Amino acid sequence: MTKTITFLALLTMSLHTVADEYVCTSEGIVRSISVEYEHKGWKVPCKVRYDKPAEGGTSEYPWSAKATPGYCEDRAAFLAGKLENWGWQCERFETSEDDE
Fold it and tell me: pTM of the prediction?
């Protein structure tokens, strides 16, 4: 339940279209990784957003792409995998075009 509420709160904060999001937890701490697109239905330009709401509310954009479809999705999955290797539990959420 907490994951769902956190996911929805983070999703509504974005001014861009979000298609993929990972919500990762470890010892009660939640982090999220999302792929943001500037235009609905377009795969580029995009950027990867990394939020740490319980850790000062910081948001970072470690990767972006202007012309390479799939790059941001791959980088988001990479970061989620990295967190899982460090002991975090990550769950992927997909938003379809109809949900936006």
Answer: 0.77
Tokens of 30: 């939640």
SS (H, E, C) 44-73: CCEEEEEEECCCCCEEEEEEEECCCCCHHH
Q: Which H/E stretch holds residue 10?
A: helix 2-13
Written as six digits, the tokens of 97 are 């075009």
User: Side chain identity at 78, as an amino acid letter?
Assistant: F
Confidence bin at 3 (pLDDT 50/70/90): low
Q: State pLDDT tens for residues 50-64.
A: 999 999 999 999 999
**Cβ atoms 62, 79 nearer than 8 A:** yes
